[in-house]
Every structure is written in structure tokens, then in C-alpha cells.
Amino acid sequence: MTITITAFEKSPDGGKGLARDTRVRWALEEVGQPYEVLPLPFPALKESTHLCRNPFGQIPTYEEGDLCLFESGAIVFHLAERHPGLLPEDANARSRAIMWMFAALNSVEPAILEIVTVKFVEGDKPWTKERMPLVFDRIRHRFRQLSPRLDAAEWLDGEFSAGDLLMVSVLLRSRPSGILDEFPNLAAYVARGEARPAYQRAFAAQLAQAMGKHAAV
Ligand SMILES: N[C@@H](CCC(=O)N[C@@H](CS)C(=O)NCC(=O)O)C(=O)O
């Protein structure tokens, strides 16, 4: 059955891989599933056809036969459950990998997302200048907590898993701010993720999309 995901027709980051379709593409590449992309211009996100896919009017979504999913974490989890390669066989290790998926999305990503909120959503507000250092401090706090985990380990818990895929994807979003580079072992962890052939294929496909070229995936 054909898998179709949605992505921005033109990603606001110009193809740096920060839009969340990249993590879904990466998971698809890791598990070796071919997919098609439905590129959507911004206005189409809020139209009824897309609101049927995702009531919040966002990308990415995932369609396969009569299954339609939204939320990048749920999509990655779906792929990890149905195909080998992203979750360990051992039941406890599997639960820990799933725990790291939630940690990436619930404990780390919200702090990083605040950069975008302060910069773009509240950019014209008088408090922006004072708020940004507080946002950066909260991110640093999280990174200080996460960092020891990756001092001696290549991945969060043994083999590379969907937990790493999401954590690397989330950490990547902090790189433009410069904070990631303050934590060399986290920056190295992200670089290990980016070096994976599956990531590189996913990145190239979303970049082609952002550049307006047809992404053959
Ligand atoms: N929690 C959602 C967030 C989805 C999300 O924020 N998508 C962004 C692109 S990365 C989007 O569609 N933004 C356009 C909008 O919200 O109008 C997920 O992980 O899939």
C-alpha cells in the first residue's frame, strides 16, 4: 500500500531539515519503506481537505490505505512498531526506547520551540528582548541534564532507536541559535544522527522539496 506524507510545499527554513516531515522521512528511510510526498502550500493546511487529515492544520501527516495519522511522534512510533529497525526486541529495552521518544517530544522539544515563539510569534512585543535569555537558559538547563547521558554512549540506550531519531531531530532545531554547540557531546550526537545514510536520504529529499524540485523518494 502506498504511503503518502504531507510536507510544506516550500519549507520556511529553506530546506535545513527543521520541519517535522524530515523526522518522518528519516523514519521511513530507516525502515526501508518507500513513500510519496504531497506538498502543501500554507493556505491548504487550513482547508477542509487537510483538516480531515489533521484537525490542527499542520504537517506532517501520514496516509496508508484507510489509515490517516498526524503528530510526527505518533507516525514514527507507528513505523517503529510495524517494521524492524527502530525499536529493540527486548521488552524492557523497547519500553525505554519509547520513553526516550516521549522525552524528546515532551521534555526537550517544548523548551526549544519557545525560541520560535519568542522570535516570530511575539517578536514585536516589548518583552521579547528580556524573554529570550530566559528561554535560552531553560534550554541550557535541559541540555545540562541530558548531556551526561551521552558522555560515553553513542546513543541514548544501547543501539540507535526511534528515541534517538526523535531526540536528534529535536536537538537539531536548537542549532541555529548556537546553543547546541555549547554542548560538544550533544552536537557530536546530532552529527552521528545526521551521518546515518537514512538521515542523509531524508534530508536530501526534503531539501529538493524546499528548492521546488520534485522529490523522487
Ligand atoms: N506536534 C506536531 C507539531 C506539528 C507542527 O508544528 N508542524 C508545523 C511544521 S514543522 C506546521 O505545520 N506549522 C504550520 C502551522 O502550524 O500553521 C508534530 O510533531 O507533528
Q: What do you see in this structure?
A:
The chain is an alpha+beta fold and 217 residues long. It folds into 2 domains: 3-85 and 198-210, 3-Layer(aba) Sandwich (Glutaredoxin), CATH 3.40.30.10; 91-196, Glutathione S-transferase Yfyf (Class Pi), Chain A, domain 2 (Up-down Bundle), CATH 1.20.1050.10. The protein is built from 9 helices and 4 strands; from the N terminus they run E-H-E-H-H-E-E-H-H-H-H-H-H. Strands 2-1-3-4 form a 4-stranded mixed sheet. It is globular. The model has no long low-confidence stretch (mean pLDDT 95). Glutathione (GSH) binds at residues 19-20, 45, 57-60, 71-73.
Largest sheet: 4 strands, mixed
- Strand arrangement, major sheet: 2-1-3-4
Q: Quickly give the CATH architecture of the largest domain.
A: Up-down Bundle
User: How much helical structure, as a percent, in the residues?
Assistant: 40-55%
Low-confidence stretches: none
Mass-distribution shape: globular
How far apart, in Å, are the first and last alpha carbons?
15 Å
**Helix and strand run:** EHEHHEEHHHHHH
Q: Work out the number of β strands.
A: 4
Bound molecules: glutathione
- Helix/strand structural class: alpha+beta
CATH class of the largest domain, please?
Mainly Alpha
- Arithmetic mean pLDDT: 95
How many domain modules? 2
- Cα-atom radius of gyration: 17 Å
| Structure annotation, total helices | 9
Strand content: 5-15%
Write the CATH fold name of the largest domain: Glutathione S-transferase Yfyf (Class Pi), Chain A, domain 2
